[in-house]
Design brief:
This protein is an alpha/beta fold. The chain is 35% helix and 22% strand. The chain contains 9 helices and 12 strands.
């Protein structure tokens, strides 16, 4: 081994030791710890895991956290979903000048008179079909463009300004939606449009993230039934560069709405 290599290696080790010593002194220690500190608790602390909340407390907590992130939250009775979901979707489109919507091909959404209500306002609806078929034309690009060679469904969804999803779960203490991507529940619906509208059943609200993952494992015990991805959405898209300049809506919707359906 050459002297140059020895010096480079020795310099790296000495630099690391000096770095660790500097951190230790900042923590009020004379030297770095020789053994790892004890970990009496692994995982969620018992007092945190023991927290139990009522459905109403979870609704209130989710609403407060979602609103703090500049999201808009509404509540309605589950029995009134056929009226409430289309009404709020029409309201969003009217307020934001939206004329094209993409939505999950979710049975609970498909059972509502949502598409007809939006169509009456002149709003086109693109359901995200599991088979990749597009109900709406996917025009807007030349035949030889890279965009034109993408799937018709994706091209149709890309031109939509509102995405409507039926959330699988929601986490109250962080104001987070949990969306499982599979079949007619495409990720693109919640990522491509500049506005997101999520419908959440109150009984799918959990207190903390660990409970959401436990529910996913329970609902999908077999690997074959697992979703292709789990998307956690906490408020509008936020992106910041190294100088902490914050920009809203660059990597996802910049405006988000949630409707909680209470029993």
């Amino acid at each position: 081994m050459s002297a140059t290599h020895n010096q480079a290696t020795r310099g790296t080790i000495e630099g690391r030791d000096e770095f660790m010593l500097r951190i230790a002194k900042r923590l009020g220690r004379q030297a770095p710890l020789a053994v790892p500190p004890a970990r009496p608790v692994i995982g969620v602390p018992e007092e945190y895991a023991a927290v139990r909340t009522t459905v109403q407390e979870r609704i209130d907590q989710f609403g407060a956290n979602w609103s703090a992130l500049t999201g808009t939250v509404w509540t309605a009775r589950a029995a009134d979903a056929a009226d409430a979901v289309p009404a709020f979707a029409r309201r969003i489109c009217a307020e934001r000048g939206i004329d094209r919507v993409t939505r999950w091909d979710h049975p609970d959404l498909a059972a509502l008179p949502l598409d007809a209500a939006l169509a009456a306002d002149g709003v086109a609806v693109v359901p995200w079909r599991g088979d990749g078929a597009a109900d709406a034309p996917a025009s807007g690009a030349g035949a030889d463009s890279a965009w034109s060679r993408r799937s018709p469904l994706l091209r149709a969804a890309e031109r939509s300004r509102l995405g409507i999803v039926w959330a699988d779960y929601a986490i109250a203490n962080t104001g987070t939606l949990v969306l499982l991507a599979r079949g007619g529940h495409g990720r693109s619906v919640s990522l491509l449009p500049d506005t997101l509208f999520a419908v959440i059943r109150a009984d799918r609200l959990v207190t903390r993230m660990g409970e959401a993952f436990e529910a996913i494992r329970a609902d999908h015990p077999e690997a074959a039934s697992l979703p292709s991805s789990i998307n956690l959405i906490t408020g509008p898209s936020r992106s910041a560069d190294i100088e902490n300049d914050l920009t809203i809506g660059i990597h996802g919707p910049g405006k988000v709405y949630a409707l909680i359906l209470e029993s």
